[in-house]
UniProtKB/TrEMBL annotation:
Residues 45-281 form the Orn/DAP/Arg decarboxylase 2 N-terminal domain. This is ornithine decarboxylase. One of its GO terms (biological process) is putrescine biosynthetic process from arginine, via ornithine. It catalyses: L-ornithine + H(+) = putrescine + CO2.
Length: 461
């Protein structure tokens, strides 16, 4: 695959019958006798491919524009670029990242309603025309700095049932939308469509229905003023793992009828979306090592409760925390739970435990309470579904470095990616092909594999 030629990272082919979990176990075994047990990720690029096929099966009319902010790892960007996805960028740096992989400007939307003038000019100089706005001030900035821009009006939604609300910061009301369209007409700025975002971690799919209906109203307003609007951007809010109350297909089963009602397929309207966590959450598993441990003895309470009879609670300190990968706890309202790398014995006693990051800040707590067997310094904990809003916002506070990322992919996944890149996406054939791909690092089947060495060939991605 020609586009996969950058040497900034590589991935390893998985041997037939083996998964990303086997790579994770292998890497842990490799450092078992060493003191250098740094935290690390294993990321399955094949999982991203499977999500892409699943997207087109569930939302055949909607083109995904990946939200780069969610995980800006170059391997992810290059993988999705090869699959033909578009990209939602929020800054000059994200635009540069995406364009460095060879993505044409037509596949980029500068979807930040509040942009610095110099960065608007950068977009103009590099051919990026699609961009969002939600205020008159932004409209006038773009009119001066990028008069050839193709603007998308972002409207507010009811995101009260979302985990991370966005309409408190972005979006124009329907009343304001009419005023903005009128002002755009005076400034001779081209408005090509409408966008919205129901909030990250959407828990009520009906929010999409109302937002799509509102978008239809704005399209009608635009038509009255002479705009030929042809783009609808339904934003993000799609889950990236299965441990959620509202499943992906439950959301799409509500979106599709709404699109058919308000924007039928013969209307000529192009529909895009801005999925982020959907693509990357389940692809990444983080392995952390216990670097310190504290035993806290409980005072005698006179209780017959079994927990009290254990006589102690345990505090574990690991080598990644909320200033690193687990910033998702603070910024993304994530609730994480550890998976033990070594098996516990059937009759092993469980203790109430807390898990802490490595920094000298008392805020650096990963898990407040979790019941598990007693572990020792040097043991490993795994955290699944760690691809979204983790590495992208991690810092090096206190001098603790970000974990390395080890990318893997099966050969069938690689071959399917080549096919899609060369021939385009063929939903029926690709759905059949993807069914033969190995499981991702979520290792959902429960089938055990003996740790094995993966193919030693590293392919530059």
């Amino acid at each position: 695959m020609n586009s996969f030629s950058n040497e900034e990272f590589d991935f390893t082919f998985l041997d037939e019958g083996f998964t990303a979990k086997d790579v994770l176990d292998q890497k842990i075994n490799e450092v078992s006798a060493s003191d250098d047990k740094d935290a690390f990720y294993v990321a399955d690029l094949g999982d991203v491919l499977r999500k892409h096929v699943r997207w087109y099966k569930a939302l055949p009319r909607v083109t995904p524009f990946y939200a780069v902010k969610c995980n800006d790892s170059k391997a992810i960007v290059k993988t999705l670029a090869a699959l033909g996805a578009g990209f939602d960028c929020a800054s000059k740096t994200e635009i540069q990242l995406v364009q460095s992989t060879g993505v044409p400007p037509e596949r980029i939307i500068y979807a930040n309603p509040c942009k610095q003038v110099s960065q608007i000019k950068h977009a103009a100089n590099n051919g990026v025309q699609m961009m969002t706005f939600d205020s008159e001030v932004e409209l006038m900035k773009v009119a001066r700095a990028h008069p050839k821009a193709k603007l998308v009006l972002r409207i507010a939604t009811d995101d009260s049932k979302a985990v991370c609300r966005l309409s408190v910061k972005f979006g124009a009301t329907l009343k304001t939308s009419r005023l903005l369209l009128e002002r755009a007409k005076e400034l001779d700025i081209d408005i090509i469509g409408v966008s919205f975002h129901v909030g990250s971690g959407c828990t009520d799919p009906e929010t999409f229905v109302q937002a799509i209906s509102d978008a239809r109203c704005v399209f009608d307003m635009g038509a009255e003023l002479g705009f030929h609007m042809h783009l609808l951007d339904i934003g993000g809010g799609f889950p990236g793992s299965e441990d959620v109350k509202l499943k992906f297909e439950e959301i799409t089963s509500v979106i599709n009828p709404a699109l058919d009602k308000y924007f039928p397929s013969d209307s000529g309207i192009r529909i895009i979306a801005e999925p982020g966590r959907y693509y990357v959450a389940s692809a990444f598993t983080l392995a952390v090592n216990i670097i310190a441990k504290k035993v806290v003895l409980k005072e005698q309470s006179g209780s017959d409760d079994e927990e009290d009879t254990n006589g102690k609670t345990l505090m574990y300190y690991v080598n990644d925390g909320v200033y690193g990968s687990f910033n998702c706890i603070l910024y993304d309202h994530a609730h994480v739970k550890p998976v033990l790398q070594k098996r516990s014995k059937p009759d092993e006693r469980y203790y109430s435990c807390s898990i802490w990051g490595p920094t000298c800040d008392g805020l650096d707590r990963i898990v407040e309470r979790f019941d598990m067997p007693e572990l020792q310094v040097g043991d490993w904990m795994l955290f699944e579904n760690m691809g979204a809003y983790t590495v992208a916002a991690a810092s090096t506070f206190n001098g603790f470095q970000r974990p390395t990322i080890n990318y893997v992919m099966s050969r069938p996944a690689w071959q399917l990616m080549q096919q899609i890149e060369e021939q385009g996406f063929r939903a029926e054939a690709d759905e059949q092909d993807v069914g033969t791909l190995p499981l991702s690092c979520a290792w959902e089947s429960g089938i055990e594999h003996h740790p094995a060495t993966c193919a030693s060939t590293s392919i530059n991605v």
